[in-house]
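Lab notebook page, bench 4
Experiment: in silico fold of construct C2
Operator: M.H.
Input chain length: 460 residues
Purpose: comparison with the prior construct
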Amino acid sequence: MNTRNILAALLLMVAGLQTAQAQKMVVTLTDNKSVEYEISQVKEVTFVEGEPIVIDDHEWVDLGLPSGTLWATCNVGAESPVEYGDYFAWGETEPKEDYSWSTYKYCKGDNNTLTKYCFESDYGYNSFTDNLTELLPEDDAATANWGSGWQMPSLEQYEELINGYYTTTEWMKQDYVYGCKITSRSNGNTIFLPATGYCDDTSLYHVNLNACYWSRSLNSSYSYRAYYQYCGSISIYTFHCGRNSGQSVRPVRVQKKKDHEYVDLGLPSGTLWATCNVGAESPEEYGDYFAWGETQPKEGYSWSTYKYCKGSENTLTKYCDESDYGYNGFTDSKTELLPEDDAATANWGSGWQMPSLEQCEELCNEEYTTATWKTVNGVAGMEVKSKINGNSIFLPAAGYQYESSVEWAGTFGFFSSRTKAPYYDGYYMDIFSSGSSSGIETYHGSRYMGHSVRPVRKQI
């Protein structure tokens, strides 16, 4: 849980920066109102006896999640974890009495007259589109009510929150209120999501039975629907519904990601290779497994669970340049992962990304490196050593994940690139040791498989 930021600390810090580049100081009060001063206006700071002024009095919990997301302990409009708080339509920042299309802020009365956040002309007013797929800060109920340090969770943050690798979930009663308790597997910290129900028109439904919590992410198929998290006595999952619905908001904030270590192998491209896989703390740890284009690990890897298809290799919904493999003939001609779908970027920050096919081929090039199969702390893998400066990285033989099983660990390792391969495949780099031979090479395989991710960054 956070320590509260006291106004005194901020003012003292700012007073010491009068010669710095910043020329203004903004003081945010507990009611979220801000007062702006020119640095030249501040002569001195004086404190009087009494209660300290708190800039941000909203508490949060660190669940030890890979993304660094910190979850608030209360809903917007609530004063304790068990209070329901306020209800909001998606993209609206104030509660109201009627939650229907006729009162929805961003339409002309129904779901195919949208005036904001629309990527399909069929649902836009007079064919309006703006291609916005995530709430802007001014339309984010968490940001608008709690300040710029907070926002509504993204779909990916909800999926991480309920991922069985990181948390456990339990339906329970706390202070006479039913809800879902979510407990971190890494540090034991918890949050409680009360069963707030939801609002439709002028009525409130399913209070103390289940709850719907808005994300800030628009549904990827229908502009009039947005993603939310459902919490119930039997299950907890993410889904989507009409934006006019009144739902709860549980804010999040993101702590600064740690600085991950990397090695300069002196490669012609200037590529710097990370020393560890995503999800690992040391070079020999396997880390997490990811399907190509997905940013969170999961329990089962198959076409039926793959995010960007409708259940098989010829129903792709993203990253498809051949109509034979696209859902209903879909194509988008995208051949490289966007940052939001890159497991390295999503988990480690914007300075990192999954390697391209060309960067993988460069690492495998015998002109620049030598590859030696070896064991580090009891873990088999490949040491790739630079012929240019002698630096090296170790790639553990983590195998791959198919369905719910890890296959070939200790003998093979598969590391995804960010480059799309022909058909329904993605390119990857694999290491292997078979009999008396071993090696490192690039290849391609089905995108749904769970592979390791070794991030890269470029020298400035």
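Observations: The chain has three domains: 5-56, 60-254, 262-458. The chain has a mean pLDDT of 88.
Next step: discuss at group meeting.
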